[in-house]
TrEMBL record:
Topology within the bilayer: Peripheral membrane protein
Upper lineage: Eukaryota, Metazoa, Chordata, Craniata, Vertebrata
Family indicated by similarity: Belongs to the MAM33 family.
Any one annotated GO CC term: plasma membrane
Gene Ontology biological-process annotations: apoptotic process; complement activation, classical pathway; cytosolic ribosome assembly; DNA damage response; innate immune response; mRNA processing; RNA splicing
Family matches, as SUPFAM superfamilies: Mitochondrial glycoprotein MAM33-like
Keywords of the record: Acetylation, Adaptive immunity, Apoptosis, Cell membrane, Complement pathway, Cytoplasm, DNA damage, Immunity, Innate immunity, Membrane, Mitochondrion, mRNA processing, mRNA splicing, Nucleus, Phosphoprotein, Secreted, Transcription, Transcription regulation, Transit peptide
Superkingdom of origin: Eukaryota
Principal cellular location given in the protein's record: membrane
Pfam family, one: MAM33
Sequence segments annotated as region (Disordered): 148-167
Protein name: Complement component 1 Q subcomponent-binding protein, mitochondrial
Subcellular location as annotated: Cell membrane; Cytoplasm; Mitochondrion matrix; Nucleus, Nucleolus
């Protein structure tokens, strides 16, 4: 009887010990991340989320945020319903000063005229020059957008003010020349540009063309878009004799170095005019005017 009782107590003790060990093993993975070293090879424990950092940890509905901004939405000072901030105020003041400075350096009160009887037509940033001569209509179209070549800041020389070292901004747009004849339903179209190494040719050197023809093609008269289905002659590998004749053809119709110089001056004035207008529109937009 005593042996049976002793055996029963032993079995009960083993069962209790096994259950406790099993429970410890189950809880161990949950407790280990909280006390384990950061360099442990086990998976990283679940950390606090942004929401936890922004909350006080209480269960109440009002949770003052730890990361929340203390700045409120600025009041609206006009009837436009737009947002007004201190940054907008500083931006508007900067634009006002910038507009004044740009108007000070503005060279032309009106757009310069082209010699040779060219008529100017403006549509936003696009300009079209037209000239009629001996049964032909010659038109030149260009756009001032992206017409300012990139400039690289240079260190001012000793004794020279930084403003004196700034290069003059000149607009050198690509332009398209279209020559139309009354007896033909096709126009001869020249795609022209200003090569960077020819724009500033120096005095005393042999005069060279300050513009170049990139492509030539016949296009239907009156078409605004260049049709890729028409054959296009590239001048990259063109015989120089043929190229010279093409340049002479343009010069006979008033598109020569003098014209190219005047077109740069016109485009520069037009680009600066549109730049000032953009600044004024931007200022009015920022101030909701």
């Amino acid at each position: 009887m005593l042996k049976s009782l002793t055996r029963a107590l032993g079995v009960a003790t083993r069962i209790s010990t096994s259950t406790a060990a099993s429970s410890t093993r189950v809880l161990e993975p949950l407790l280990r991340p909280a006390v384990g070293a950061p360099s442990s090879a086990t998976a990283r424990p679940f950390t606090r989320s942004i929401w936890m950092l922004c909350s006080s940890g209480s269960s109440s509905e009002h949770r003052p945020g730890l990361l929340s901004s203390s700045r409120g939405i600025p009041s609206v000072s006009c009837g436009c319903g737009g947002l007004h901030t201190e940054g907008d105020k500083a931006f508007a003041e900067f634009l006002s000063d910038e507009i004044k400075e740009e108007k000070k350096i503005k060279k032309h009160t009106a757009l310069p005229k082209m010699s040779g009887g060219w008529e100017l037509e403006l549509t936003g940033t696009e300009a079209k020059l037209t000239r009629k001569i001996a049964g032909e209509v010659v038109s030149v179209t260009f756009n001032i957008n992206n017409s300012i070549p990139p400039t690289f800041d240079e260190e001012p020389e000793q004794g020279q003010k930084p403003s004196e070292n700034e290069p003059e901004i000149v607009s050198t747009p690509n332009f398209v020349v279209e020559v139309a004849k009354q007896a033909s339903n096709q126009s001869l179209v020249f795609d022209c540009h200003y090569p960077e190494d020819e724009v500033g040719h120096g005095e005393g050197e042999e005069e060279s063309d300050i513009f170049a023809v990139r492509e030539v093609s016949f296009q239907p008269t009156g078409e605004k878009e260049w049709k890729d289905t028409s054959y296009t002659l590239s001048t990259d590998s063109l015989d120089w004799a043929l190229y010279d004749h093409l340049m002479d053809f343009l010069a006979d119709r008033g598109v020569d170095n003098t014209f190219a110089d005047e077109l740069m001056e016109l485009s520069t004035a037009l680009e600066h005019q549109e730049y000032i207008k953009f600044l004024e529109d931007l200022s009015g937009f920022v101030k909701c005017q």
